[in-house]
Design goal:
Layout (H helix, E strand, L loop, with lengths): L4 H5 L8 E2 L2 E2 L1 E2 L10 H13 L9 H21 L7 E4 L2 H13 L7 E5 L8 H10 L2 E5 L10 H7 L4 E7 L11 H10 L3 E5 L11 H4 L3 E5 L9 E5 L1 H4 L21 H21 L12 H29 L4 E4 L13 E6 L4 H10 L2 E2 L1 E3 L4 H7 L7 E5 L6 H15 L1
Parallel strand pairs: 3-13, 5-6, 5-7, 7-8, 8-9
Antiparallel strand pairs: 1-2, 4-10, 9-10, 11-12, 12-15, 14-15
Helix pairs in contact: 2-10, 3-10, 4-5, 10-11, 11-14
């Protein structure tokens, strides 16, 4: 099913920027995506019409509170949660994880075990290591296969034991694009009575999320990675959240949302969700193969993200074919075209004789935004060795990118290497 990319691009003001007379190209999506006009308008409308603190007995506060309620409902639809009460909003995924890790840790005893992976962003590793150190817990780390940078099956099997209380894993790697089998990992965790904590930050802009189908106990993401403002989102099963101790001020209305929220950004987050739902409505959920009794915004979101996934992976195939022709280039992670359904359209690469920073700077001078470094996937960088050479050049595709932009990037890389 086709995607009206030109029409969607027209909704993003940043895509009209130029550098040296040429359109600026954004392949920096894994670090944060651009936002549609509707998101910008929603933030501005909040300041114009409803800028007030929580639970006031006057009109602007009542409007602000309505925005808060609607944002929780929109994000519940985005993640497939059972209710808006399972959604907690904070500054970013890292802050939310650090905060809730304290509550989760309070349920554990010395000798209990936590499992993390060396494929993850450190935001889903270090909070658990810190908490484990403070409470006398054991942390086991799942290794990666060096050939394709997927989780090592034997290491995963050995790491989860009857003493495991929490398994923390990424939905997809923000450095090399590997998609993890999160539903299967949930099954293994639950078989020993452990909880599953999923970092879905990198996956969120690329495909549908269904927390109930995965059977995740917790899942976190950030709206600025899927076309919204800088906010973090935490999903937690209601029956678990209700039992966790909370660390908050006594007057705080929510047990896990501490302090006054950035309410102006809440409306922007709702607008981002609605933008993605608009894509699904245009595609027609039924035609996109959405079933299971889904209706309304949730059905539109699943359809939209399904169409986005198809378009992005077609674009990825074009990028990968071109990268393969560049001498000395190594694509880290899954490189077999027959397995591209196991990865996101994010390329982490190195080119012999060229430092990643050098490449990123040269592309930047040509008006093309990419990232270089280890992207906080420090364990992965250390285990594979790419961290010692300045990390990777990262090229991240999202649905507002085009074939012409991919070809322009490939041409610049070929010129740099030549």
């Amino acid at each position: 099913m086709s995607l009206d990319v030109a029409g969607l691009r027209s909704r993003f003001p940043a895509l009209s920027l130029t550098q040296d007379g040429r359109p600026f190209v954004y392949f920096d999506g894994p670090g944060g995506t651009q936002v549609p006009e509707s998101v910008i308008d929603a933030v501005g409308r909040y300041y114009r019409e409803m800028n007030a603190n929580h639970e006031g007995a006057f009109a602007t506060s009542e409007r602000s509170d309505a925005v808060i309620v609607e944002t929780h409902a929109a994000l519940a639809d985005f993640l497939g949660a059972a209710s808006p009460g399972e959604i907690k909003i904070g500054p970013n995924m890292t802050t939310l994880t650090l905060h809730v890790s304290r509550s989760i840790g309070a349920t554990m005893e010395p000798g209990d075990e936590i499992v993390v992976t060396s494929l993850d962003h450190n935001a889903n590793i270090d909070p658990w290591r810190h908490m484990a150190r403070d409470r006398g817990l054991t942390v086991r780390t799942v290794g990666v296969r060096t050939d394709d940078l997927t989780l090592d099956e034997a290491s995963l099997e050995a790491a989860i034991t009857p003493r495991t209380k929490l398994v923390a894993v990424g939905y997809a790697s923000n450095a090399v694009g590997t998609i993890n089998p999160v539903a299967e990992i949930a099954r293994r965790a639950h078989a020993v009575g452990a909880w599953l904590y999923v970092d879905a930050v990198h996956w969120a802009p690329h495909g549908p999320i269904d927390v109930r189908a995965i059977d995740a106990d917790f899942l976190v993401c950030s709206t600025y990675k899927f076309f919204g403002p800088h906010l973090g989102v935490l999903y937690g099963k209601a029956e678990i959240l209700e039992t966790l101790p909370s660390y908050k001020l006594r007057p705080a209305a929510d047990r896990f949302e501490t302090g006054t929220g950035a309410y102006e950004l809440f409306g922007g987050a709702t607008a981002a969700v609605d933008y993605l739902a608009d894509i699904g409505r245009a595609a027609d959920p039924a035609a996109a193969g959405v079933g299971g009794g889904l209706t309304g915004r949730r059905a539109a979101l699943v359809a939209g993200m399904t169409v986005i996934r198809g378009y992005e992976m077609d674009l990825w195939a074009r990028l990968e074919r071109g990268l393969r022709e560049i001498p000395g280039l190594r694509l880290w992670g899954i490189a077999d075209p027959g397995r591209f359904d196991e990865r996101t359209p994010t390329a982490g690469l190195t080119i012999d004789g060229h430092a990643p920073r050098e490449l990123a700077a040269a592309l930047g001078r040509a008006g093309i935004a990419t990232w270089d470094g280890d992207f906080y996937a420090r364990d992965l960088a250390e285990r594979t060795g790419f961290g010692q050479a300045g990390g990777l050049l990262r090229i991240g595709l999202v649905h507002y990118n085009t074939a012409d932009e991919v070809d322009r990037l490939l041409g610049e890389l070929e010129r740099l290497v030549a």
